[in-house]
Fold:
Amino acid sequence: MPFEPHTIEAKLALSKIGPNEMPTLAWEALEAGLDGPRIRRMAALTDPSGWEVDQILPAFMAEAGLSVIPLQEAAVRIARQIARQILSEKLDPLEHTKDFESLWIQAGYPKEIGEAGMLDDQKYVAECMGQTEAEFREYAKNVLLALAKAPN
Structure:
């Protein structure tokens, strides 16, 4: 997996990278040409605890050129990434409504992903109002298209 700072910053902000994944992340940084004592130290960890990672993480991030970003910005980045993946892989958007809802809630309801964040509730309302699943799927796809095309 390539070292993608934009995504890594977002995942770190959302606590979506666990301590046991950090050595692999450090190896990816090394393979991307980044180097430093904290990157090497993180890469050398075996079955690290959260405490161990927390002690190294700020210096690791500085050496890797990673920034600490706000939770809302992180959720928007990940939501856009998920939307692009769903659209490019032609996945069923109705199977991923909870993904957007959980990001939206975790980040404190950022307006940039509000429409995608409400898809799961809207799916239920559409069903109650007699809208077909195919009609709602098309609506959800359009919501994801707008989200995916929005500037970062």
Q: What stands out?
A: The radius of gyration is 18 Å.
